[in-house]
Automatic annotation (TrEMBL):
InterPro entries: PhaG_MnhG_YufB. The lineage of its organism: Bacteria, Pseudomonadati, Pseudomonadota, Betaproteobacteria, Burkholderiales. The chain crosses the membrane at residues 6-27, 39-61, 67-86. Keywords: Membrane, Transmembrane, Transmembrane helix. This is Monovalent cation/H(+) antiporter subunit G. It comes from Orrella daihaiensis. It comes from the Bacteria. It holds the Pfam family PhaG_MnhG_YufB. The keyword Transmembrane helix applies.
Length: 104
């Protein structure tokens, strides 16, 4: 039982770390596209790790099945929503910063 607790807390801690790194990425990156990249990668990984940690805590139960369903939904929707947002921004005229350009 203690090993499962350690595994779940490690997963929860790593997930929280990635969520914080994604938040810092939003603040530090220069334009929309690099911010979206930082958030989409780290937030998806952080959320997956948090959900896996909660699944380990819950054991084999209905709660684990529901958390797994949420995880699958997240894996299918997060990349699609990131693509849709980037495509809409590009069609709306938002240009990415190129090397050496300053943000206006």
């Amino acid at each position: 039982m203690i090993i499962l607790d350690v595994i779940s807390w490690v997963l929860l801690g790593l997930g929280g770390f990635f969520v914080v790194v994604g938040g810092i990425g939003v603040l530090r990156m220069p334009d929309l596209y690099t911010r979206m990249h930082a958030v989409s990668v780290t937030e998806t990984l952080g959320t997956i790790l948090v959900l896996l940690g909660l699944m380990v805590m819950a054991g084999w139960s209905l709660a684990s099945f529901k958390l797994f369903a949420i995880l699958l939904f997240l894996l299918f929707t997060a990349p699609v929503s990131s693509y849709a947002l980037a495509n809409t921004a590009m069609l709306g005229g938002t240009k990415p910063l190129l090397d050496g350009e300053k943000q206006s």
